[in-house]
Amino acid sequence: MLAGAYPPYPGxxxxxxxxxxxxxKAVDNLLSVEPYVRDLEPDFTFRTTWIDFPAGPxxxxxxxxxxxxxxxxxDYVTDVSDPSKLDEPMSHFFLRFTGYVKVRLSDxxxxxxxxGLPVWVDFANMGYxxxxxxxxxxxxxxxxxxxxxxxxxxxxxxxxxxxFGPNMxxxxxxxxxxxxxxxxxxxxxLAAPLAGIELYGFHAESDKFWPxxxxxxxxxxxxGRLVPxxxxxxxxxxxxxxxxxxxxxxxxxxxxxxxxxxxxxxxFIFLPAGxxxxxxxxxQSIDASERAAFLNAFDGPxxxxxxxxx
Length: 310
Known about the structure:
- It is a single chain.
- The chain is mainly β.
- The chain has two domains: 14-237, Jelly Rolls, CATH 2.60.120; 254-307, no CATH class.
- The chain contains four helices and 16 strands.
């Protein structure tokens, strides 16, 4: 099942949570920090349009000259729950960013080119020294949760960028989470000497899919785009899916009707991912009554021919 339906207006960006001054016993690496903070309240929360710290969406240079956590987060945060925390001195810290990522075709007139094909979106991360990004797997939908963390070694000068591609089988909203841990050690004696995290979005044919954010060039990955705030929604934006609303855009239109034709193939033993939005009686099949219910509720800009349209 999709996470929900997205409204017609753009998304509102990421929700961030910050955990500061983590004790030594908890900071071996990202995987030890995540369970440690699970039951803790964050020191503060904030909103951000870009996951790109400390530089912001202009370059990809991490930093070692940071005095406070505010220096790290710089000008790209809003709605800080406790602004005084931005003056806390740099220390071992952990950040969590969450939202729902909107996946849709940029040009929906090309839907026939993609019917039955999964949507593949690459995310690229840079981080010192631990970071995770992924779309948690959803029943019947897919998605990918991937973890990458850099082993601190002051003698390594390797590029910390890496990427992965969540295989999103259908259009709509997917929950996404990015976590970042930094065992701050500006001298580089015990851990990573730099601090920085960025999240990019890539697709080989980016004119057909999101993202449509600010285009950047990276020495390893070439041209890509910062994941734009317009594709990241928060829980308060998400609406329940309507029956028959395959692409999660709150109406039943020709695109939903086209997917209904695919999902209604009587040879399917199990419904493909996303098709259960048409299965109103949960029988793992789409029958004539469910087709009729869809046509009766159709309210998109173009009517299917069999429902009286042109």
